[in-house]
Structure formats: C-alpha cells, structure tokens
Design brief:
The complex is a heterodimer of chains A (about 110) and B (about 120).
Chain A: E1 5-7, E2 10-14, E3 19-24, E4 31-37, E5 43-50, E6 55-58, E7 61-66, E8 71-76, E9 85-92, E10 99-101, E11 105-110
Parallel strand pairs in A: 2-11
Antiparallel strand pairs in A: 1-3, 3-8, 4-5, 4-9, 6-7, 7-8, 9-10, 9-11
Chain B: E1 4-7, E2 10-13, E3 19-25, E4 31-38, E5 42-51, E6 54-57, E7 64-66, E8 76-78, E9 87-94, E10 108-109, E11 113-117
Classes of the chains: A mainly beta (about 110), B mainly beta (about 120).
Chain lengths: ~110, ~120
C-alpha cells in the first residue's frame, strides 16, 4: 500500500517562481526523504528530515515536517528550467531500511 | 566506473519467457533493492536484501525471484513473464545506517531497465 501521497500531481510554473509540493503519509515514521527523477533516469536523493526535526534547508530546498498532521512539504525557491522533474517523497518506518515512495509530483518549469 | 549499473537498459520479451535483470554496485553497500515504477503507482518495492544471502519480500514480490550470492550483485528474475510485469525496473543500494537500522539510509538508484512483455 502507498504510504506517501504527493499533492499536486502536476505543477507548472515559470522560472524564478517558487514551487511547493506536499506529501502526506499514513503511519509513524523515522524519517522522510525527498527524491528527484529526471525523465528517463533513476531517482536522486535530495534531502532527508528526521521525525524529530521540523524544518531543514539545503541550498534552494526547504523541507518541513509536521508529524501531528503526518505531512511534509518541499519548497524549491527561485526555480530554474533544470528543476523540471518528478519529485517523490519516501518514508522510512520501523527498523528495516525499506523506503515507501509516494506517487510523485511532476514539476514543469518554463522559461 | 564506480556506481550502480543495470543491464539491459531495454528489454522486450514474450509472455511466458524467463527474464533476468542485472544490477551491479561498486560501493560494497550492504542493502540492495528492486523497485518497479508504473504510472499512478509511483515506485513499489519488489524485493530487498540486507546482505549477501539475505533477501526479503517487498510490497509486490509475486512472479519475481531474487538472489544475492555476492554483495555487489542483485539479479531479479521473472520466471514466467506476464504482460502485467511490463514496467520500468529500478535497482538501488544503500549503506547500513551509522545510527542503526531506521536512522538514515539514502538510497542510490541505477538508471533503470524498461521491460516490455508482449
């Protein structure tokens, strides 16, 4: 069963604008990760936030986590055409090292 | 070259045939994973392995077989391919988290194999 659900499914913005993607999950987690997938490629890890953290930054990325609402958001500031990709959240639960991925948000950044 | 590779990158086969997808990583990561990616489903875990000779089922294991005789290789076999197994397959690997299981495990993905079953 899918643990994470991203919202929106697709997002189209212009270069320079901010992009916000949301992820909701169902069960308690150890950490939540965001991955990017360019068309025809494998996934690339972007950022991880632990269950005891509320916000994390990495370059133009900002991730928030609200464990009470079982949700996370990924903000990409000052977007670029190269940010065009699909973005997936993934949750780690329990003691195994298995991740459960959401269905993804397709981001299109136009010039 | 260091990294994680998959072969073949593209494969067309017929229903009922046996197909093996290969995955090789050069980092000596303990964990390896197989996912399938389908529209509307995101990535779903098929099988994973915590170390050589240790494998376990994921969310969608039916119709697949894995083995892990060496740390660096994790082949996925479709014993009798079906049309529903048409998908893009990704292999991934990760280290044992320094803080113990569940603490941190960034996964590194291969480029994928696009499999079509006719």
């Amino acid at each position: 069963s899918q643990q994470g659900e991203e919202d929106p499914q697709a997002l189209s913005i212009q270069e320079g604008e901010n992009a916000t993607m949301n992820c909701s999950y169902k069960t308690s987690i150890n950490n939540l990760q965001w991955y990017r997938q360019n068309s025809g490629r494998g996934l690339v890890h972007l950022i991880l936030i632990r269950s005891n953290e509320r916000e994390k930054h990495s370059g133009r990325l900002r991730v928030t986590l609200d464990t009470s609402k079982k949700s996370s958001s990924l903000l990409i500031t000052a977007s670029r055409a190269a940010d065009t990709a699909s973005y997936f959240c993934a949750t780690l639960t329990g003691t195994a090292s298995k991740l459960t991925f959401g269905t993804g948000t397709r981001l299109q950044v136009t010039l | 070259d260091a990294g994680i590779t998959q072969s073949p990158r593209y494969k067309i086969t017929e229903t009922g045939r046996q197909v093996t997808l290969m995955c090789h990583q050069t980092w000596s990561h303990s964990y390896m994973f197989w996912y399938r990616q389908d529209l509307g489903h995101g990535l779903r875990l098929i099988y994973y392995s915590a170390a050589a000779d240790i494998t376990d089922k994921g969310e969608v294991p039916d119709g697949y077989v894995v083995s892990r005789s060496k740390t660096e290789n994790f082949p996925l076999t479709l014993e009798s391919a079906t049309r529903s197994q048409t998908s893009v397959y990704f292999c991934a690997s990760s280290e044992i988290p320094a803080g113990g299981p569940g603490s941190y495990n960034e996964q590194f993905f291969g480029p994928g194999t696009r499999l079509t079953v006719l």
